[in-house]
Amino acid sequence: MKNMMGGSYWQNVKNSFVPEFISMNAMMAGMAPVMAILMMGRDMRAMWPGEMLFWGVMALGIGVGFAVAYPFNVWLVAKGLKHGLMTERPHDAHQRHASHAQYGRQTGYHEQHKGHQQHEPGGAQPNRAFAPTRIQIGAMAGFTSIMLIAGFAYPFMKVNMHLSAHDVGGAIMAPGMIMTFDTPGDAMRDMAAIDPRLVDFNAPATASGGQVFQPRMEGDVKVFDLTASVISWSILPGETVEAYAYNNQVPGPTLRIVEGDKVRINVTNRLPESTTVHWHGLILPNEMDGPAHITQEPIQPGQTFTYEYTVEQAGTYVNGGVKTGHGAEQQSATVAPA
User: Fold this and answer.
1) What is the three-class DSSP state of 239?
2) Within this chain, do residues 160 and 250 fall inside the same structural domain, yes or no?
3) Is the whole model's pTM more than 0.70, yes or no?
4) 32-49: per-residue pLDDT in tens?
């Protein structure tokens, strides 16, 4: 800094503080609301540095910040309070004139054009009539300070700025989801949509759910293998959604069994979170009922849990994946009288 601007370090800190204060206030006033709204608005992956979306939001925020600060920087440079990229410093101008003078003495050009030196841009002195007053500088500092406060206050009125990236866990909010400045992180995770990158099966547009699932027999036991995973499912022509599903269908397959049957249901979890299966209305051993942390530990991603019991009543029942995170799957079971 001393080599560039001359003077002592503290003199340069003192001289550059107010201009930089004005410039950075304006830049942050543009950056803050853009980054806060985009990071905390819908796609919380923008809060994680490991995501490309994070750097995209950062770049956009910086670009907006530069655009907002640009007119203030132009004013600072025009008033001589800050150097622009094309500013010629007096030290550089002096060296250039000294070089021209030496060249002129050698060639005779200097004496012939001595009167024209006063028109050189580097030798021109700034017009003191255009020098900024303290009132102007104070007004600029005050105005950009108000901009900065407003830039930080606006996101606090729109999104929950008290949450960290760990609180929301990279959640993606579904379009149209109502969120306010006091929406808690747990609610965001519960309401969150599914990360499209987790989809491992794209169901055809003609697929339908609730298909009857034929078991295999192991002795006198009917065995059903269910896999919970993330799929892409068509709900309307040309419209798909990401869904938690059993055996790649929504709703899950229909299990048809007869009263008195012995059944064994192997549930494999390929979801990004833990899950269990609760058998609504069926009379069965308590340890087979499914509520997580009550009758069994959750089925962790990649694990398989086996439900095994004898069916004791007839009827049609809806069996649901108990959500230990933010998703649930459903299927039906039809039990015929013996």
Assistant:
1) strand
2) no
3) no
4) 999 988 888 778 888 888
